[in-house]
Amino acid sequence: MALIELEHIVKTYDLGLSKVPALRDIHARIERGEFVAIVGQSGSGKSTLMNIIGCLDVPTAGIYRLSGRDVSTLSDDQLADVRNLEIGFVFQSFQLLPRASALENVELPLVYRGVAKKERRDRAVEALATVGLEDRMKHKPAELSGGQRQRVAIARALVTQPSLLLADEPTGNLDSRTGEEIFHLFLDLHAGGNTIVLVTHEPKLAARCPRAVRLVDGLVIADGPGREVAAANAEALGAEALAQFQAAERAAQAGARP
Amino acid sequence: MSEVALQAPPLEAPAWTVRLRRGWTGRLDDLRLALDSLSSHKLRSGLTLLGIVIGVFTVVAMRALLTISGIAIGIMTVILIFMVQSGMSASFARQLSTLGPNTLFVHKWKWGVSGSDWWKYKNRPHVTMLDLRALQQNTTLPVAIAPLVNTLATVSHAGKDVKGVDVRGTTDGYLDATGWQIRRGRFITALDQEIGANACIIGADIEDAFFKGQEPLGQQVRVGPNMRCDIVGIFARKGNAFGQTQDLRVVLPLSSFIRTFGSKRGLVVAVVAPEGKVRETEGEVTAVMRNARHLAPDQEENFSVNRQDKLLEGFEQMMKATNITGILVGIITAIVAGIGIMNILLVSVKERTREIGIRRAVGARRATILWQFLCEAVMVALVGGAVGIALASGAASIIDLISPLPARVDPRVMLGGVIGSAVLGVGFGLWPALTAAMLQPVEALRYE
Fold first, then answer.
1. By Cβ atoms counted within 10 A, which residue in A56, A69, A86, B27 is the most buried?
2. For chain A, how many structural domains are there in total?
């Protein structure tokens, strides 16, 4: 059974007078243990897709199964529980609590899971050790470098041992060297058996992932090994691919207005 | 050394400080100047430190502090109002118990009446000696009858004056009718009244004022402008009622009182009914009075037979008014303080939108967020309430010290303050907490 199954996922933002389609007809399957990059220009719908995969948002139509369970119909509280149990988020802007220490930040998901204080502490220490921050546990985010903050965020994502690690432009706010370190950390985590979905706008990064999914205007236009997908930019698409894309777009529009 | 000190004031210091300092330098020795400059430096560093502390204080903390003080003032005000009220109730109850529940008071005025009927009672005839005599001769039920009349006058002894003494005229029934007790000597007798004797009984405060360490019995005091009278008895100390001493008094035979102060004042006649026969006695007194006044059966009474429960009614009305004031003040402060809580919480929710987003992303449910902010609101309110209770307790001890009211904070009122502030926190924290809980995680995470 695939970890993630997306079937005919549609997400439309209602802006009152106009309806803006962000995702039009997304099909995808991601197996356990995969490392998938979702790549696309800004406005391609990749952030919307990430929010839906991360259960932060629900699709307008379509079915999303996470570990075989349809989460597109869950209540707000159930989604919160799924986020807590199944998903670890890593954000571009780290999203750490500024007034809490690294350790307290990493403990936070376990607090909401109701883990006892002692065990919470042990597991947070362990997670921080995994990302190489065992000597920075008492520091506040403001006292840490960008790369260290992102490591804290990764530790927070890992501490719950989630089925899925979901990273949204994790290297976007870092200089290239630190970004490289963080990317290597993800590669290590993948090698250690974690399922990772990485959202990025950088084809170079996508090229180094075992698999990449390219989004354009809310549609998947390429899905395959990272290097191939990255190479196939819009100009390089053959006539066949372009026709395929246009057909898919027409189908999606027909689907939107039955 | 002194030259250095002369230049110590900064250039922008106003001229008068420079002059002042020069004035000092002329008079103080070098050591003193050195100490002075040191301490002024200390002050400067202290001020700098204070500036930093205030600077570090975030705006949110300031707002929280202001709200806390708002709640504190509110809670304190309400507690103080209730405290003063309960103090008044307690002393009133004590005062009433000294009147005795079986005592009727025949008076021109009806007790506990206010406002519109004022003229009606004003125009009634006074209760006079004739009425008193009729009551004494024609009633059968009363245990004791005593006329009461009083004025404030100056009492003097050996060149010393005490002003504002409560001088009363009465007869031998007074002790039975009022419950006052003689500590030493005797009370007025029927003979004193008959002959208009120059005899008096003094209160404990008068004894203290004139006869410290002396024997008052047998000595003379001057009462009013020209009456000299012998002290034949001393009252036992009674203490305060309504915040006023009751022991600053002199009691004379009614006849002597009238001779000195004139007969224009009306009397109050206290009639003590036997136990359980208050109603019958009231009927008899009314009948005797109507007879003495020659009232036809269809004529309205031109006197009143008062009982202390009527006084109680009037007092209760007054208490109700202060109660309403207390509740109104409470409501207003509650609203003001509550809006303060709501304000800081709404700002807090806005400022911490991303935090809420993060918490939601890692698995906090809506209810968890709601609970978190409600707890904050209740904490702010409780701190305010605690400060208010502390202030009220402090104010109570001050009031107790400087005013005659027996002020103290009832533990039940304290508990009420704590519960009230908690309710305030929940009530006004609910809306901001709900807005926090209803935030969409995606929106909250994106918020800058």
1. A56
2. 1
B10 shares its domain with B75: no
For the segment A184-193, the average pLDDT, to the nearest whole number, is 92
- Confidence (pLDDT) at A107: 93
B252 falls within a domain: yes
Which domain-ending residue is among B56, B75, B100?
A: B56
Q: What's the 3-state SS for chain B?
A: CHHHHHHCCCCCCCHHHHHHHHHHHHHCCHHHHHHHHHHHHHHHHHHHHHHHHHHHCCHHHHHHHHHHHHHHHHHHHHHHHHHHHHHHHHHHHHHHHHHCCCEEEEECCCCCCCHHHHHHHHCCCCCCHHHHHHHHHHCCCCCEEEEEEEEEEEEEECCEEEEEEEEEEECCCHHHHHCCCEEEECCCCHHHHHHCCCEEEECHHHHHHHCCCCCCCCCEEEECCCEEEEEEEEECCCCEECCEECCCEEEEEHHHHHHHHCCCCCCEEEEECCCCCHHHHHHHHHHHHHHHCCCCCCCCCCCEEEEHHHHHHHHHHHHHHHHHHHHHHHHHHHHHHHHHHHHHHHHHHHHCHHHHHHHHHCCCCHHHHHHHHHHHHHHHHHHHHHHHHHHHHHHHHHHHHHCCCCCCCCHHHHHHHHHHHHHHHHHHHHHHHHHHHCCCHHHHHHCC
Residue B5 reports pLDDT greater than 80: no
Q: For the residues B351-363, what does the mean pLDDT come to?
A: 91
CATH of the domain at A102: 3.40.50.300
Residue A132 domain-assigned (yes or no): yes
At residue B402, the pLDDT reads 76
Regarding whether B354 and B239 lie in a shared domain, the answer is no
With respect to residue B18, please indicate whether it lies within any of the assigned structural domains. yes
Going by pLDDT thresholds of 50, 70 and 90, the confidence category of residue A240 is low
At B36 the pLDDT is: 60
Domain that holds residue A168: 32-57+77-256
Q: What is the pLDDT of residue B398?
A: 82
B362 interfaces chain A, CB cutoff of 8 Å: yes
Which chain B residue has the Cα nearest residue A162? B362
Residue A253, min C-alpha distance to chain B (Å): 27
Instruction: Report pLDDT digits (tens) over B416-439.
Output: 888 888 888 899 899 999 999 999
Give the residue on B whose Cα is nearest the Cα of A96. Answer: B358
Q: Which of A31-40, A118-127, B8-17, B303-312 has the lowest mean pLDDT?
A: B8-17
Question: Cβ contact (<8 Å) for A56 and B361?
Answer: yes
Interface check A94 vs B, CB under 8 A: no
Which residue segment(s) compose the domain that B152 sits in? 148-260
Q: Which of B251-260, B332-341, B364-373 has the lowest mean pLDDT?
A: B332-341
Is the same domain home to B362 and B440?
yes
Q: What is the pLDDT of residues B87-145, one digit of tens each?
A: 777 666 665 655 666 788 888 888 766 666 777 888 888 888 888 889 889 888 888 88
Residue B220 domain flag? yes
User: A96 vs chain B: nearest CA distance in angstroms?
Assistant: 7
Q: Determine, yes or no, domain membership for A15.
A: no
Q: Place B48 in a pLDDT band, splitting at 50, 70 and 90.
A: low
Residues of A in contact with B361 (CB under 8 A): 54, 56, 83, 89, 95
Chain A 117-156, CB below 8 Å of chain B: which residues?
Answer: 156
Identity of the residue in A57, A76, A113 whose CB atom sits nearest the CB atom of B363: A113
Interface residue of A42, A47, A74, A83 to substitute, partner B, most B CBs within 10 Å: A83
A217 within some domain: yes
Number of domains in chain B: 3
Q: Is residue A110 part of a domain?
A: yes
User: Which ipTM score applies to this complex?
Assistant: 0.87
